[in-house]
Amino acid sequence: MKLKLDIEALTENFFDDTRLLGIMVSAKSYRFCWQLNNMLGYNFRLNTDIEIHLRKKGRQYYFPVYQHAVHGSALSHFIYHNQYDGEYLLPEFKHMDFLWLIKGDCIPDAQCKELIQSVKNMNGVQLVAELTNEKIITKGNLVF
Which CATH architecture has domain 15-142? Predict the structure, then answer.
């Protein structure tokens, strides 16, 4: 008997208790995370252990992931860079430069709206929008 990993179920479980924001900003990933850390009090750090590797068209693509864990909580924040060398992590959202995944303890709508507004007020940020799971076609690319 051959065992087969159910990727779809794995993906659905990964997105339990998550929120995903799409962010349009002209800054580089390290600069954007530095701004979040200094202006909003986060502690985002590059986590090379969960960097996303995709193989497309015979080439390797690497998408860095920055992580901030909330102390005393199951809540973690992840910032994905959506573009690498002309390829996109979520091609259906090519206009988004970064994807902010909030995973763990579910945050209330009011807190999410407050976060969106705070990010919108940062220099260089052009757009912040919450992306619903139904709109994400290639969400398996975000699973680490």
Answer: 2-Layer Sandwich (3.30)
